[in-house]
UniProtKB/TrEMBL annotation:
Pfam families (alphabetical): Amidase_2
UniProt keyword Lipoprotein, yes or no: no
Name this protein carries in UniProt: N-acetylmuramoyl-L-alanine amidase
Catalytic activity: Hydrolyzes the link between N-acetylmuramoyl residues and L-amino acid residues in certain cell-wall glycopeptides
Organism: Streptomyces avermitilis
Length: 218
């Protein structure tokens, strides 16, 4: 499920002071790297996209907010291009996943959770960087989708779950121009540096990609 506790150092920007209109931004004597400043241009007044409380990016999803400690505010895809979908498995129940993503001490959360019956809950806006992959670069470039269940249990992955998740992924791919293939729709296990194994050997990738492609053309 998501990352290991403590995230992947994404929070370091959130803890820094940013001075816009001044000559520098710093914490103590450290100066923000030029690359990081380039990704924060949207914090200038009047640049950031408008937000509506409780809004979702996938029609039909239920909004339940994750703890703000488990994600970083951004303005994707303007500051970070989105070119991946990362498939996760919760290793527990839907309720337990929601609970830990709302826990500020957990240090991780995904954008979405798909329940066994196909219900979709969104906990972080796609605009923002969720701490889900255990790799900062992949967090910045991807949308993370958790699926209720266990990697060792084939029965976790129901028809309703596959169908709902495929529609969700198809929508994400359409929004960001992501190709529907295994290079761009990946498992958590494929993220560089991760020690996770999800979605595991029982996740049917051939079936899933066929469903995503069908949903994209529907």
């Amino acid at each position: 499920m998501g990352e290991t506790k403590g995230g992947d150092a994404d929070r370091r920007i959130g803890r820094r002071a940013l001075l816009i209109g001044g000559a520098a931004a710093a914490v103590g004597t450290a100066v923000l790297a030029r690359e990081e400043l380039a990704h924060l241009w949207w914090r200038l007044p009047g640049v950031e996209k408008p937000r509506v409380a409780g809004a979702v990016d996938f029609r039909g999803a239920q909004w339940v907010a994750a703890s703000s400690a488990n994600w970083r505010r951004a303005d994707r895809p303007d500051d970070y291009a989105v070119d991946r979908v990362v498939v996760h498995v919760t290793q527990g129940s839907f309720k337990s996943a929601v609970k830990v993503f709302q826990d500020p001490g957990h240090g991780a959360a995904a954008h979405y959770i798909v329940r066994k019956d196909g219900h979709i809950t969104q906990m972080i806006r796609e605009l923002d960087v969720a701490f889900h992959a255990g790799n900062r670069e992949y967090n910045e470039r991807s949308v993370g989708i958790e699926h209720e269940g266990f990697v060792e249990s084939a029965s976790s992955f129901t028809d309703a779950m596959y169908e709902a998740s495929a529609r969700l992924t198809a929508g994400i791919c359409g929004r960001y121009g992501i190709p529907v293939d295994r290079a761009h729709i990946i498992g958590h296990v494929e993220v560089p540096g991760t020690d996770h194994t999800d979605p595991g050997p029982h996740w049917d990738w051939d079936r899933y990609l066929k469903l995503v492609r069908r949903a994209r053309t529907a």
